[in-house]
Amino acid sequence: MARELIVSALPGEIRAACVEDGRLLDLLILREGMAGEAPVQAGDLFLARVKRFDKGLDGAFVDLGLARDGLLPKKEAPQGIPPEGASIAVKVVRAPAADKGARISAKNLVLDPEQLEGVTAPARLAAGGALLSDFALQSGVDRVVADDAVLLRQLKAALGEGARSFELPAAPGNLFEAQGLEAEFEGLLTPRVDLDGGGFLLIEPGRTLTAIDVNAGRHEGRGGQAAQARAVNLAAVPEIARQLRLRALSGLIVVDFLAVKAPEDRKALAAALRQAVAGDPEPCQVFGISPSGLLEMTRRRGRAPLHELLCRPCGFAGSGREKTPETLAYEALRQAAAEARGKAVQHVVLRVGPATAAALQGAQAAALKAVEQRLGRAIEVKADPLVAGHELVLG
Question: Of 118, 241, 292, 296, which has the most beta carbons under 10 Å away?
Answer without folding.
Answer: 241
